[in-house]
Each structure stands twice: as C-alpha cells, then as structure tokens.
Description:
heterodimer; A: two-stranded antiparallel sheet; B: two-stranded antiparallel sheet; 4 helices; Autophagy-related protein 13 (chain A); autophagy (chain A); ATG13 (chain A); HORMA_dom_sf (chain A)
Amino acid sequence: MDSDLSPQDKKDLDKFIKFFALKTVQVIVQARLGEKVCTRSLSSPTGSDWFNLAIKDIPEVTHEAKKALSGQLPGIGRSMCVEISLKTSECFSFCSWTVTLNISDYYFFCRCDKDIKVSYTVYNRLSLLLKSLLAITRVTPAYKLSRKQGHDYVILYRIYFGEVQLTGLGEGFQTVRVGVVGTPIGTITLSCAYRTNLAFMSTRAPGEDEGAYNGVEDSQEVCTTSFSTSPPSQMGIPGKEGGVPQQVPVQPCHGAQAEHGRVSSCPPADHVPATPSSSGEGAETLSRSIEVKGVSPCDVLETTFTRKVGAFVNKPGTQVTTASLDLPFAAFAPRAYDLEENDPMVQPPESPATSSPLQGSLHSQGSGESGGPAQDDFVMVDFKPAFSKDDLLPMDLGTFYREFQNPPQLASLTIDVSSQSMAEDLDSLPEKLAVYEKNIDEFDAFVDTLQ
Amino acid sequence: MNCRSEVLEVSVEGRQVDEAMLALLHTILLHRSTGKFHYKKEGTYSIGTVGTQDIDCDYIDFSFVRVSSDELDRVIRKAVGEFKDAMGNGTDGMGQISLEFYQKKKSRWPFSDECIPWEVWSIKVNVVNLANEQERQICREKVGEKLGEKVINIVEVINQHEYLPKMPTQSEVDNVFDTSLKDVQPYLYKITFQITDTLGTSKTTWFCAY
C-alpha cells in the first residue's frame, strides 16, 4: 500500500495522525477538567482549527503530549494510551479510564475511487472520530467523578506508549470501540476502557494501596497537573502548529458510495513527523511516560481547610472525657467530645500537603462488594438535586446538602455542659423522686383525664 | 441505495422526555453537522469550525455534548416540545420521534424535487409514571445510564462509515445540506413523530425543520 501512496499523501497522513493524537489528548483531558466545555462555532475558518472542530488547546497538555510523542507517531505496534486516574486525599488512587489510539496494519482502506484523494476521506473521518470521542467522554462514569472533584479527590492523566495497561481498571471494566478509520498506512482504532467499580475503600490496610494501582503510585510517571481548584487556563489561543486545510477545490467526486472531499496540503508543521513504523505486528512493551513535576502523589493539591462553625456551637474547651467522669450512667452521656476528637472535619488528618479530608457525604450506604467486608466498602453515589447547577452558584444545593449532612453538635448537647448538669441532676434525683411520689395522686388524676 | 435505519428505545418519566430526546438528537446531529462552506471564485471552498457545548440535564443524571449553535438548538427544542405536548404531560404513553437525513433530487417540471432519505434514526419513547420520590431518584440514575448506552450505540453505528452524500458543488449544496443556519451546516434533515394513544392508534405528525 505504501508504494501506491504519493509522498505528499503520506506526508499529509502523517500530519493528520500527529494532530489527531494531540487533539485526542486535549479532548480527553478537557473532559476531565471538572468543568463544562463550551467552544464557539465559527462560520469562517480561522486556519488553526484542526478537523474543523473548535477544540482549544491547553498549552500544558499540548506540551506534555508532544513530549510523550517525542517526535514519533502512534504506529503499528506503538499504541498511544491516555490514562485518567483518580487520587483521593488518602492517596488512594485508581485508574478510571484509558483511551487507546492504535494503528494496526490490518487492511483496507478504500471503498472510494482511486481518483479521490485518500487524505480527504481520512481527514473527514478523523473529524467524525473526534466528535465521537467528545460524546463518549461525557457518558462514562469517570465524567461524573471529574465534575465532582475538589477537596476529596483529584483527577490525573498520564500518556504512555506501548501495550495498554488495563489492570488498574479493576474487575468488570467495560470497553468501547469509539471508531475506526482506515488509511493506506494502517487502520486507526480509537477505543476506551473504563472502570465500572467505583467503590471507595475508606480504610485500607497498610500495603493494600500499593496493590491497588502501582502505575499511579509510582508517581514519577504521572502528570500531576490537577484540574480541581486551579484549572489551567484553557481558553488559550488555538494551536498554531502548522496550518489547517482550508482551501478545498470543488470537484464533484465520482463514485456512488464513498464520501468525497478534497483537502489541500497543510503548510509544513514545526515538528517533522517520523515515518510510522512498518514493523510487524505485536505491541512492544515500550512504555514511555511523562513526568511533569517531581512531586509525590499526595502533593498534587494544596488546600486550606476551614470549617464553618455552626450556630450555637461552643468551641471545645477543657478536654473532658467520659472516662474521667466518675458518674453513674456515664456510659449514656453524649459522646460529643469523642466525636469531635475523631471527626476529621474538625481535625483534618495530618497528611504532607494535601489536607483535604474526606467528607462524610462521600460515603453512602452502598452495596457491599464481594470478597470484602461490607462495612468498609463505599459506593459513591452522586447526589444531584433537581435544578442544581454546579456552575450557577459557588455553593449549590447539592454542595450545601453534603457539607451540612453532618452538622456539629449543638452546645446544649456537648459533654462539658451536659456533664455538669447531669451531675447536678443525679444529685437532685432523690429529692425529685420524693416530690413525685408525694404528688402521685395528682399524676394519676391527670392520666385519668387523658383516657 | 437503501436508507439506513436505526432504532433506539428508552423508557422515561414524563418530565424527562425533553432532555432524553434532546440528548439523543443532538448527539446524532453533532456527527451529522459540518462547518459552513464558503465557496471561492477559483472553485475551492473552505469549511468553518464546529464548536461544541456541554449540557447538563436537570431531571436525568446525564450530560451530553451538542453543537454550539443556538439556532439549531431552538429548532430541535421546538420539535421536541411539540412531541412532548403530543405525548401529553405526565401520562403513560408511547411515542416515536424520528430524525431523517435526506437529500434532494432535482426533478424536471412539472414534478417537484424528490427527497431521498439516506439515514433514519427512530427513538421509541415509553413514558412511565412513578409513585414516589425514591423511585424518581432511581429513575434519574437508570435513565442516565441508559442514555449513555444509547450514545455509545449511536457512535458505533456512525463510525461504521456507511453511506454519506457526496460533497456537493456550490449549486448543489442546498440539496445536501441545510444552509439556513448561520454558524453550522447539518445535513438536510426532518423530524417526525408518532404518538400511540391508549387505543393503540398511531398519529404521525411531520415537523419539517428545513
């Protein structure tokens, strides 16, 4: 097939594949930013929108993607994988989504006539594939998670080449083939695999985290750019690499079935794409990853935690425990102090940088997982009240509900106040009982009136 | 040439009909819309850029992407609104809304132009009534999952790369594309719907978008 391809066509195809790979990464990462994406349709082309789609480039993402590509293209046996991971404040992480761009040497290309420029059809089909990727990225479970990211967890991404690693997706992951585009140099396949088991492990034994997902725990290879509290500026100038086909000669193309279009060549791009490998099948185990920051996994996010003190709440004064009170029925005293001592919302856990305690609202009564204690497994259930819009107010209804699901104890129920009053109550109890016994006739008469 | 036909089925609550239909119709139109063609004198043309917009549903745990075109969105919302009105508010019922892509074939006088469909998407809707808020909450999530599956179905079908009309010359562009919008250019399409009443009779209403 390569011998039938003109040098210009081959150059075009290489360029298309390169920019398709870059745009794929942009689409995936932007879909996991946690915000809604909105780009304008332009009736007149700007000359910089590849595949006639308004996909704005986040410079950092483009930089990392180019670093990962390292001047080469996804090729036969060299799949490009974009992996999305979730990392909680307890540094528990798991992979939630993997998209693979694979070029295989299996077949095909043409149902079109030989008169038709191959690159035009490929270009249009790659555009269609990107639209499909846009649609798919919003329907997988990871999208909902990414929209909720913040204090409790952040979303990370990683780009690597070689054999796709699906072990981090857990059991029962789903795979979707987004689409296939045949070219004379191979078939481009875009597929994704996503986790379906979204159980959060609240307490894990030491050493269990390492087994969960080593790829992300070895964070040297993880791009630690987080998109939760300080998303990078994404509305930058559209990518300037090369141009975009915009001069399209109008020649009604013959042929009954194939789509047609003629696309002129693009100006040379700044990076010269390498010739895709024409080696045999079999994915090599080369794994090339990117490193953005040399920080440990837990350092991805710095937050300042402040707890709003509710009305009527007294700040805990002297440390009084129930054990220190020599009281009868002390076991029935409210354990407010103990709750406060252990309440992570009052005293955040001492983690190195990320001090975002898990909120109680994340844990809901979920179904137990097989093979593990049911009370340790939590299934994250999204809570979205009707008419709740995350972007409308800083704190929408859902956020308000989650934050105040575990309100602090009222002052009247705190141990220091109640303990004193309880001691007095216990002392006065015999006297009160004597009075009640004395007036027992009145109480009986009152009860009779009620019947 | 045979017209390709795809059928999708969903069961939703009455108040979810709008958003469910919008999600699926917009997903299809996202794939069947291009940028505006601008023809130049030397016989070439350029293609505009299609923007996209994320939409969150209020009554369904679901988000989808649509073409960033308010004009197109108005047309689709109007059609969906009429469909929902025809279905009735809050009552059980079944209906079907169809999105048909076609191209015109010029005919000689005295015959009118012929509309040849090349792809038809039919969405069968079953409206259910729910008794309490708990069921509604469950329905929100379940319908969201179902719509996600339908979006994946749509994507798989579209990426099979079956027939698409040839790219037209300037004189024939109106036979293939809807050029009435300012910012995007979908393939010519029309929306129709059928409502099945309690007696089982169907009534078809045509909503010609172009």
